Amino acid sequence: MHIKKITTSIFATTFALGLITVNFFNHFYAEKALHKDAEQLLYQFHDAMLEAHEILESLPEPDAFKCSEADIKTLAMMAFEHPAVRLIGVLHDQEQHCASENVHIDLTDYHQRTLNTDKHVLNDELSLATVTHGDEHLDLLMVRSHDNSRYFASINPFMVNYLTEFACMDCLEYDFVISGLPKLEFKSKRISEPSYIEYTANRMEGDVKVTLSVRGTKEFYTYYQELSWISTVIFSLFIASLIALLSFKLLTIRQSMDRIIKDAIKYKEFTPFYQPIVDSRTDEVVGVEMLARWVHKDGAVVPAYQFIPFSEDTGLIVDITEQLIKKMAKDIKTLKWDQSEKFVSINIVPDHFKDRDLYLLLDGLMSRYEIAPSTISLEITERMKIDNLPQARGCLNEFYNKGIDLKLDDAGTGYGGFSYIQELGISTLKIDKMFVDTINSNDLKSSVLDAIISFAKSSNLKMIAEGVEHQHQVEYLKERDVFMIQGYIYAKPMPIEQLQKWLQKRG
Fold this sequence. Notes:
single chain; 507 residues; alpha/beta; Beta-Lactamase; TIM Barrel; 6-stranded antiparallel beta sheet; 14 helices; 45% helix; elongated
């Protein structure tokens, strides 16, 4: 029931956050629509220019065009086959000779604008001009010049109605400006309401700059707003459902993992494995590190990485450690190390510093099994953060007074650094495998290894190198006075029975 409530809250929160983004979607959709409309109009103009150019270039020289019936029919057919061009004509000596249809325009004004020195020139032969109809409608013409004769093609005006066919009527307008002197400007029908959203696009046609400004009313914006509400709701439902489902699965897995580990603790399935630490000078075993392994009833072993991180996050590692320590005390007696100089290192976490339970447990076991305190050693990893160092030191003092020391595991890889060494009373640094692996390599971390060794020497700290797998690593460390070696070069972690056999073989 608890998981269902959390999942429901996650779904509701995610869905609400999705709906809050509706304004973003509104603007996004409307701006994208306006951008698309403007670009479509520019491409329409570009296509019209290409069609007009194609037609004019396909005709013979203007002064050779005789305007026979067949020629006029050809012009009419060209205009019919090219929707972007509605009129094609030819001029001789500034007088209209013929066209694809009757032209009701002021040719005098047309001639003057065409021959004006400020005309819009596309290349040596092509130019743009305008002509005004009797109804003051402005037409854009492309002109091909040759001596005293010219072809002209009238380019159809643009329409935006089809762009808003499903959105609204008369809710979008444009201004189409061709730069130059004089400035050529075409405008669509004006919208009656104030502009609510706008977009401007530019394009170069040869050396001529074309600018298109599109404006939409509140009605245009509202159409896309309604769309975005629908899209936002659908999107929010999808994301909220997905996140809620993933959360449910993760929470279920965590709950299942929590229950499974607690059952494993209950049935005492956590078993200590031991990895030997060897003095490379004498080849003698000086101690072991106790490592947690989860051994099922059928003998299957669960690797530490599959349960340690979760156990540390949930605090279950404290109960696991307690179970391991109780078994370790018996193993020390089995190995007959209870009064020897050899040690067993126990990994602890910051949660162990919150009370005296670990100290009381060890103190009771040492008394019960008559184990010398020097046989027990604690290891704290630098990768885990200790929030209150003075409190931790106060807790550790009891161990120190008893004769139990503290080692710093994973030195140089995490939070603690030198502050742990200074504040916690560390006796030994354990050099992490990541630095050992850099020996005789070009890895930049190799300099860190030497720095750690140098610091440990200057601070009178003991050193143990972890993860050692090759003899050349042993030799490199020995040359730098690092003699305590832990790694596969000697042995893998093993249960007590295998450790006994391994020790017996070494004599």
